[in-house]
Amino acid sequence: MDYGKAVQQELRGPARALRQTIPQVYAGYGQLHEAALAPGALDVKTKELIALAIAVSKQCDGCIAAHARGAAEHGSTPEEAAEAIGVAILMNGWPATVYGPRAFAAFNEFHADQEPGHENNPPGR
């Protein structure tokens, strides 16, 4: 199942059109995103897992896809993603049992891309 990639593909065109219409808003948000996810007391992997859990709580499919990908790209394991999603379920209740599996599916999809020898992860990357 291509849940995460399908969501990103679906949003790509409309997001590009909106970004071209209000570029200053996107530029400002981009700066906030960059600053919030920069390594500091918490590493980027941990911050992406937090963002993934919040995305589940906010029931945001685009956010789930983006932060599932970010968590995978920054070295999170499926077990770490599952535990972060578990915290979202604890804090959000039953609705998170719908969005949690979506997030886990998206994470596993992007995590597979990080495996050595995968076509999206050439040697030396």
Features:
125 residues, 0% strand
Structure description:
The protein has helices at residues 3-21, 23-37, 44-58, 61-73, 78-92, 96-113. It has 6 helices and no strands. It is globular and about 40 Å long. The relative contact order is 0.15. The protein is mainly α and 125 residues long. The model has no long low-confidence stretch (mean pLDDT 92).
Shape: globular
Q: Structural class from helices and strands?
A: mainly alpha
The major beta sheet can be summarized as: none
* H/E series: HHHHHH
Average pLDDT works out at 92
- Distance N terminus to C terminus? 25 Å
Percent of residues in helices comes to over 70%
Structural Rg: 15 Å
Describe the structure concisely.
It contains six helices and no strands. It has 125 residues and is an all-alpha fold. Helix 4 (61-73) runs parallel beside helix 6.
Topology:
Layout: H1 3-21, H2 23-37, H3 44-58, H4 61-73, H5 78-92, H6 96-113
Helix pairs in contact: 1-2, 1-4, 3-4, 3-5, 3-6, 4-6, 5-6
